[in-house]
Design a protein that fits this description.
Number of strands: 6
Shape: elongated
Helix content: under 10%
Largest sheet: 6 strands, antiparallel
Radius of gyration: 16 Å
C-alpha cells in the first residue's frame, strides 16, 4: 500500500479575463506499508498550473516537481481536470 499527499500555497494571477496562472510551492509526503514493514519520506514541491474558464466551469492543467529528501531524482506530476470556478455563473 502506497500513499502520498501534498500541501502548499498557490498564488492565482489573472492573465486574461478567462485565464488564471497558479504558481505553487509546498511539502510532499509519501508513505508505504507492506509485508516488509512501513516507511515514508517527505520533500518539497514547486509547480505551476493554468485554469481556462468560461462561466462557472473551467479546464485545469498543471505540472509539479517533487524533490524528496531520500531521492537524488525528482518526480514530475502532470495534471489535467475540470474545475468549478466560484463566484461565476
Amino acid at each position: 500500500l502506497l500513499s502520498g499527499a501534498r500541501g502548499g500555497v498557490a498564488l492565482p494571477l489573472a492573465l486574461a479575463p478567462n485565464v488564471l496562472l497558479l504558481p505553487s510551492a509546498g511539502l510532499t509526503l509519501i508513505g508505504g506499508a507492506g509485508a516488509g514493514g512501513v516507511g515514508g519520506t517527505w520533500g518539497t514541491n514547486l509547480g505551476a498550473a493554468a485554469v481556462f474558464g468560461s462561466g462557472s466551469m473551467g479546464f485545469r492543467t498543471g505540472v509539479t516537481w517533487h524533490r524528496l529528501n531520500d531521492s537524488a531524482d525528482g518526480i514530475w506530476l502532470l495534471e489535467f481536470g475540470v474545475v468549478r470556478i466560484p463566484g461565476r455563473r
